[in-house]
Batch of 3 targets.
Target 1
Amino acid sequence: MKFELKALRLFIVLSYLVIVSIAVSAQSPFSVETTKIDATVSQTENEGADTASDELDKIGWVRNDMGDKNGQFVVITRSTVNVRSGPGTGFSILQTSGRGEKYPLIREESGWYAMKIGTIDFESMAQAWLRNDMAVRVKKVISVIKDKVNLRSGPSTSHSIVGETMVGRTYPLIDTKNNWYRIALVSAEPFIPLSDPQELQAAQNDFTSAYGDYTRLVQEKGRSHSETQAALNRFRASYGVYSILAKGSQALKDVRATGQVDKIVIDKRNFTSTLYSNGKVVRIYPIAYGANPDAANKKAVGDKRTPEGAFEIINRAKNPTYKNIPGGAKNNPLGTRWMGLNTWKGSIGMHGTSAPSSIGSRASAGCVRMFTPDAEELFDMVRVSLPVIITSVKGYQQPEEPATRQEEKNEPQITEEPADEEPANEPETERVSPPERSAPESSSPKEPEKPKSFWDRISSFFGNLFS
């Protein structure tokens, strides 16, 4: 009897040790879930703390004859001084300041002082969320890299859609959460700091390399091929980074302050449009041009070629109408800006597009398409009579003499920046088919459901038993 009792006790002890050993080595399914949740919360809180602590300064500019530099400060010396958003009278007025007011000095530039006039209060602005794979981030600025991206009221697809944005738009970043960006619904351009020249050059090299791969694959394999689509993603991401840094470049700031632009060179071989000032590259834009596969010079109306040679801008229009499509409409094939050239009776020009997926390919009937935000940026820096050189697809050739004004005599004249006026002689180029719609972020595929393990089933059983 005593032997049986001892054996029973030994069996119980051994059984207990075996069960504990298995449980420890396998881990409880409940503790695993708790660990995952805690890690996720911690990561989210850290992200939020990181972005919230990185505040943006509100920068204002005054001419250096309106204030005195006193150590690390600027003291206003006039009774009423306009503080502007950039180093020039063409920039908007942010506020007025008076004699004796003192502001921290940030830097001097082109005869102007940049001063810290406060901290930007984004919390008082309209806000929205977008998923972070729809944009690229440089410090506290994001640039959208997909088209027709839904903006939502919260950081998930279960929140309501509050708007839509397009490739190339920039926004100030307020916060991050669960792989989503919270943004202020204003352009980030006034808040982009001065870019480091070496960082900008590296970003430009990355963009031109990725873009070259994409344009080559478009011609070799078509836009829908998997390799081409992967190259498209690389191109859009690298261009987003370059675009942000280019907007903060000293060269671009100087052009905006002085208006000094030499020319635009449209390279049909590389699918680019390059802005020059004082003999140097200021900005490179990706483009689309004439759909004719031989890419030669234009010979007749309707041959879908982009002319080659030396031209000039003869008119500019904001929100141009196109046939029965009103200016500024989402489906307007001209986007929101038009810059007409003195060729083919003014029917060829540079403009935005409702088909951004065509950028980097031969797609138009002769015009030069740009991402709409790029066309808006370029529009503000060019003038009527600015030279525009369109090179041969075979490489640079000495351009022909500018077209004479004889062909323009019967052309309707467009004054500077008209409201809701068509470009001269309806651009023949843009009989576009409906643009390809990129999949909205809400349509991303769900992860396949994994089969439940033994411990998951045990967990579910006891959870149901005691709930």
Target 2
Amino acid sequence: MATTRTAHTEWEGDLLHGNGLVTFDSSGIGEYPVSWPARAEQPNGKTSPEELIAAAHSACFSMALSNGLAGAGNPATKLDTRADVTFQPGTGITGIHLTVVGRVPGLDEASFVKAAEDAKANCPVSQALTGTTITLTASLA
């Protein structure tokens, strides 16, 4: 069964001096301010599209890796995933780096790295971001 999730943004003003409010409609988890300076300079308590992509990517990758490990008979006890999305004004998103540290009893490092590479290639957010260079560092705790 397909699902659709919805968020919306209300924006006021021009790009450089305006600001917006992103609302997570489906989950109702809140509203988050967004602005150009938060995107191109310092966050100063506001989010950016790149931070939202990083959140989505780290969550999706963690789910895919967890599923792959469990399916192979090696369930993880913990996965700590970070996504760093790099934005260059005037160019756009120039890359995403995923870093994952896992606790997977009975699994060797090489097998964990292989599972992480598979999750990176196959999680739906990675697939949606094809055309963007996605790199990975994976290790066991």
Target 3
Amino acid sequence: MAMTIHVDIVSAEGEIHSGQAEMVYAHAEMGEVGIAPRHAPMITRLKPGEVRVDPGSGKEQQHFYVNGGVLEVQPHRITVLADTAIRAADLDEAAVMEAKRRAEDALAGRAADMELARAQAELAETAAQLRAIERLRKLRGSR
């Protein structure tokens, strides 16, 4: 039996995931990281993007979207703390596309009610959500 590590993904709304994994992948500020059991302790900030949890034993990877946050790694536990965490399968592509359009309009100067920094952050977040949706679509299509 392969070694596993306990993974908790928590958002402001509550716990999204709790379980065992052989590997966890996330988009940290310095690039994508892969964490295996007994990894050296670390704390890093996450960029908006996908967190993948590989339970191993031939089971399907679980995909989550986080809008950023903090990743804490201990030898036998990984904790992802995010303001927003959503199962990738639950992302609403139409709503994400509409939010992207609003952010692009704001950046083009067509919307006065949204400040520039907020529009840039929203555009980055929607791009990360769309990447998560596209990756999940490709995975489902390859089966």
